[in-house]
Amino acid sequence: MAVLKNLNGQLIRDSDRINGLLQIWRSRLHSLKESHHAGLLSDTAKLDRWRNSPGLEVSTWGQRLLQDLALWSEEAWCEPLTIQPGSPRLLSFWEQQHHSHFHSGPEIIMILRGNCTYSLEVAQHGTLELWLEPGDVLQIGSFLSHRLNLGPLLELQAVRCFTSQDGWISHQGSKISQPYP
């Protein structure tokens, strides 16, 4: 069982619930099987659904992803994210996430409620738009530029996980800013 911490290094109190969610994810792992997306998503970004959907098969990448989570040192840096209409955080969220950015490490987002679109800037193929709904899990590779747009209801509840405490920091442009010594 992973020890889940928030971005400030504090233990997440409902880690049992999140670990339960990961157990559900592990037991119902499926991957999107479409020839168009298969090549684009192979190494840069991966989409998974735990809902029962026809035409989906158990995925080996999802099993590797869970192993990767365990190998991150048994600590996952997680950020619970709740956005809803009228939320004071809605404007700051929009300003941060609406612009293309990347992270120095991989990002995993699990959608719990609401919906959103992730735009992934896949170098040779332009931009790939992924519509995410409750039950969807997306892994975004290191240094892959992306942006998140909320769905029409402006509501989203999700959990974002990163490999390190500073992995969540978003960067714009082509260089990672250097911290002060």
Beta-strand segment tally = 10
Which fold name corresponds to the CATH topology? Jelly Rolls
Tally of domains:
1
- Silhouette: globular
Order of helices and strands: EHEHEHEHEEEEEE
- Calculate Rg over CA atoms: 16 Å
By CATH reckoning, the class would read Mainly Beta
Strand count, sense and barrel status of the largest sheet are:
7 strands, mixed
In percent terms, what proportion of residues is strand?
25-35%
Record the strand order, biggest sheet: 1-4-10-5-8-3-2
Structural commentary:
With 181 residues, the protein is of the alpha+beta class. The protein has a single domain, classed as Jelly Rolls (Sandwich), CATH 2.60.120.10. It is 23% helix and 32% strand. The protein is built from four helices and ten strands. A seven-stranded mixed β-sheet has the order 1-4-10-5-8-3-2, sandwiched between helices. A hairpin with a 3-residue loop joins strand 6 and strand 7 (126-132). The protein starts with a strand and ends in a 19-residue tail after the last strand. Mean pLDDT is 62; it is low at 20-46, 48-63 and 175-181. It comes from Synechococcus elongatus PCC 11802. GO terms for molecular function: acireductone dioxygenase [iron(II)-requiring] activity. Pfam families: ARD. This is Cupin domain-containing protein.
